[in-house]
Amino acid sequence: MVDRAQDAPWLAWLVEALHQAQWLLLRLLHACGLAGGAEGQPAWPWAWRLSGENLLLDAGQARLLAAGLGCAGAALLLLALACTWRRMRWPLAGGALLAVVLAPWPSASVVQVPAHPASFHTQPQPFSDTAIARGEAHYARHCLRCHGAQGNGQGRDAAAQPVWPPSFTSTLLWRRADGDLFHAIRHGVRGRDGRATMPGFAAWLSEAQTWDLLHYLRALAAGELLQATGSWAQPVPLPDMALRCHSAGKTRVSDWRGQRLLLTTAPLRDLLPDPRFITLWLPMEEAPSALPDAVDCVAAAPATATLALELVSASQSLHGVQLMADKAGWLRARNARGASAWRNDDLLCRTPDGTAQGVASGQEDALSRILRLMDAEPVRYVKGGRVHGTVF
Ligand code: HEC
């Protein structure tokens, strides 16, 4: 039986600690001038790194690593003691040596993976409607011919490639670190024999354009997954977008983090203020110039917002569509039947393993149940071998 990060908090913690330690080391080296920059961010100077990705699949090796680190910590402690407690110096130093010698370590092939300068690069831009729209244009120009309009690897040139392009609806985009995907797009991919299997696009795309593309790929994949399976095994955030709101200082979706958000395209006459969430209105017809009282905010750029949301929610048209985001910004439920017609199975992104549904209690209506489950089961997200609590 293999533990997974979701079931074993210590494993999630270990993997996160491994990543943070290397990230911190990189920042430190960069600050001291010992690591240069590459493509806009500090460059990882080694050809390998320690990765938690495999540990998430092999808890036995993870336990060895935890034990090894524990022994190393104990050895350091004993050495520090030996320095201060002179009378016990030799026994303590001996104990430290013993801890080092006996420390178990996982096999290098599991935790040591090839790295490149962009390995620890992180997505610098928010997942927003404008980034997705820009990414779509780059995709159409450079990627469509191989990867296809649905991102399923069925482009018109796909069959002529040395290997078949992957489908973006697999877990690829969610499990691989952003830095790895960024590197693959800019510098291409090579097969086991060292021959290029995908060309690199660094000469045609700026760094910012490459990051936009990654946002577009995730939005495309989210919609395709929803169409194919009706739910998301991987969580998807509500894209950030510009808003006009009654509350001063709130000009974007991201300004509402910490609140539940309902994005609705229902006609105004169907909308009632609801204190349980903030209502963001995306009008399907011309919006009135004065902000209606029944909603908290209205989308300030409806055309770009519509494009991004149609993609993410796999809707040909957003007429009558409602999307509910939880307090951390993840999209959790969708309903295309009108403002008040929620059903239990409108939950899109359930617990990470997609099974737990919670127990319906007594008189509870479907919307209340959805809201309760959203709060009770916050999203934990494994990406690039790390568990994320917040939105990418
Ligand atoms: C000439 C055809 C072709 C074009 C054009 C192309 N790709 Fe690919 N892509 C491939 C193939 C083939 C693979 C599989 C490579 C492999 O697994 O060895 C691939 C793999 C990928 C991967 C997975 C990389 C990995 O490390 O597993 C990503 C991400 C990707 N492509 C994104 C893009 C983006 C974004 C564009 C447009 C900028 C693009 N590709 C353009 C053929 C193409």
From TrEMBL:
Transmembrane segments: 64-83, 90-108
Keyword Protein biosynthesis: no
GO molecular function, one term: metal ion binding
Domain of life of the source: Bacteria
Pfam families, per database record: Cytochrome_CBB3
Keywords from the named record: Heme, Iron, Membrane, Metal-binding, Transmembrane, Transmembrane helix
InterPro entries: Cyt_c-like_dom (IPR009056), Cyt_c-like_dom_sf (IPR036909), Cytochrome_c-type_DH (IPR051459)
The keyword Acetylation appears for this protein: no
Positions of the Cytochrome c domain: 130-221
Name of protein: Cytochrome C oxidase, cbb3-type, subunit III
